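Section 5.1 Outputs to date
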Amino acid sequence: MSTTQQGTHSLAFRVMRLCKPSFHVEPPFRLDPADLFVGEDIFDDPLAAANLPPLLSSQLTKSMDSSDLTYSNRFLLHHPSDAMGFSGLLLLPQSFGAIYLGETFCSYISINNNSNFEVRDIIIKAEIQTERQRILLLDTSKSPVESVRAGGRYDFIVEHDVKELGAHTLVCTALYNDNDGERKYLPQFFKFVVANPLSVRTKVRTVKETTYLEACIENHTKSNLYMDQVEFEPAPHWSATVLKADELHPVDNSSTGGREIFKPPILIRSGGGIHNYLYQLKLASPDSAQMKVEGTNILGKLQITWRTNLGEPGRLQTQQILGTVHLNLLNHTDRELGPFDVRLSQNSAHEEKNVMINGLQTILLPQVEAFGSTDFHLSLIATKLGVQRISGITVSDTKEKKTYDPLPDVEIFVESD
């Protein structure tokens, strides 16, 4: 796991990851003595059912004699909890182990002097290097370690909130004066990979003026995850309520007043366990009475916090979750207008269209009363990622046979799944 620059050095780094211990599980399969000697049908006889347990208990008491050094009873169940294989002991981590996005990487680092003489004026640096950046965790340049005696060591602890996936390198360097006064430079590299602890799959559906967001969270780790918080933070002009099957009324997430003071964590089991969350989203009412169009496909993002079996915390924030493009058409006249046809113009044949309507090319809107408004949405398909501009949205009054000027362009952000 560690690589070092060639050359003879008095110092060497030793790195140990600091994390909670795990339960020690004994691999041998244990058995109940009754299963070894008799079958289940023996308990059909009332006399046998009454006498067998005391008989087996007396034999077990004899076999547990401390003078018996053969440990012949080590595979027998002495307590129902023995069936789980837990020995009651905790096992300290023997390696870096699995490191997941959203966790805090904590490492105990020791720089050892393996020579027979003192090493002086030591400048130590510890950094985390990823594919995107280099993060400084420790730098003793302004206050170098004065000396480390022969056979001695200098210890320190570093922490880093893991926010990137993929390959990571813990880079430890030391600049020091050797016994002969030579200034030496020691680099050592400790590599590890950060994996994704969970996946979040979302599905957005719109029914009339209400949007429903379903989020499915899947556990990819080898330990159970206890969800402390899975909250949806809506984008501006949106409000959100979480819908629960066991509640008569939804819980409002848009203000702190609707949050529960205490709620038990939700267990998502290891190795593919899932849990679904459902949110109801609504656009805020328009605040002005003029002809306008408002468009956005950004709904908000999820804040997720969890703990593992022994309480180690983790936290993730999803990217912005996208929905359909919502539009609002207002009648700024003193008379009723409509019905209307809404379409995405394709007049510019030479212009490449990166966003197209998914489904019917024309949307029918009912009449709009004087100074009234109506909401509608476009279901679109994007052919390119990033910020895309939707232009050429036209509205036609089918009764008056009048086509209005194209509505203002709408910008949306398209990202990959």
